[in-house]
Design a protein that fits this description.
Layout lengths: L1 H26 L11 E7 L14 H12 L4 E16 L6 H14 L14 E10 L1 H10 L4 H4 L6 E5 L2 E4 L5 E4 L6 E8 L6 E7 L5 E6 L8 E5 H4 E12 L17 E5 L19 E8 L2 H12 L5 E7 H44 L1 H9 L4 H39 L11 H28 L2 H9 L1
Parallel strand pairs: 3-12, 4-11
Antiparallel strand pairs: 1-13, 1-14, 2-3, 2-7, 2-13, 4-12, 5-6, 7-11, 8-9, 9-10
Amino acid sequence: MASLAVSVVLIVATGSLADALSPISDRVGRGGAAGQADVTVSAHVDSYEQGSTADLHSYAQELERFLEQARAVEGVEFLGSTRQGQAEAVVPAGMISPEARAARELIDAERRAAYSAPSFNAQGDYLGYLALFYLDDASWRSLVAELGQDEAAFCDPDNPRAIGLNTFQETLADGTYVSAEPFAGTGSIELYTVDRREGLAFMGLREGPNGELVASYTDGNDPNQRIETFPIEEVAAKRVLDVGALTEGEPGVLNALAASSQFPALVLPESAAAAPADDRFASPFTYSFASFSFKAADHAKAAEELEALAQGLDGVTLYVSDLAESARQNRLMTQAIQLFVMCFSLIMALIAVANVFNTLANSIILRTREFAVLKSAGMGNRAFARMLAYECASYAARGLVIGLAAATAVAWALHRATSLAFEGLAFSLPWAYVGAAVGMVLAVLALSVAYALVRARAGSIVEALRADAI
């Protein structure tokens, strides 16, 4: 019975593992353009000197030239792009959900230095950096339509309206998993472009002694890390941004950027991203990272040609990722794991069958006289067969029930473990493998009954009684 239960657990667990690994093997390394990209190219500035105004948005023209050349590569289809930046922000207390506030306070307690600005002021407003993700036009319009919003209200480049990314996941140093919906609702957020003063390091927005908003700085050479503050009006420009909708899940086009690990985060159209300008403090909509997604008939050749194009861009580092190759390697690894687990399950199933037959053989040998007495008292062959069938069925039923209960718990544990790293995995039992486990148990039941009847009928009733009497 124990062997049967273990076999059922292993078979169902194998199916659960297979169901979990199958989508993951394709997800890992495929983060561009809703997961359909074969190749992605990520871009960032080569170097960044303190006080420099160089940022990736300053290289917009160079990036556009690269995209034009990439589109001209034979067999390559441009799918879309994403850009990432950040701005200092004030998010009203009413827009922050209680669970997100608690999660942020846990992170602050673990990571924030004593001289750093707290994330919330006395009124509960969030003060800190806010991640901005810019989607290409097609991906943005698709997201707006998916949320059932008015396209005209969200696609005006002169008056951009953001969508709040309402999912946040993080793991603390002690292994605690944090998951929350950052936003309690929509509203208006204040964005600030803060002057990075020469010789001082910006330490964030904070609440002043009289409740006013100030910008804090510290001298990096000061061993005491003393904080110097300035009224926000003197060192920053303010921009009010409306958040018109919330998206509960991370759009597939943002997977490569791990957007759900940012708190808080907004999604905007690419048209809102700042154009190159001499004064970087004129707009908060700058970006420091970009990712371009491509589909290719021959992903290896496309990656090689894009790599060659990437070498000719001065000032910007371009990294080409062959996602199709990474996905292929992940599938091979996944299949190897599945094959190993399946073989192990098969071996355990064979051991279970052998144990069942061994148990029955010993039982029949030890109960030979009992069976002889029953037959001599008038028990017919049908009644005798029914008795053995009930006995074997009791073993099978207990093994199956215990095994399925344990297998469900194991499958749920596997689902929870994979959900820590991959969002959106729905739990379901692998019914095909459950059916296989039930079928195996029924087959063992039928074979064991037949085996028991053959062994029991092989002996003579008279000889059994005489041997026992001697």
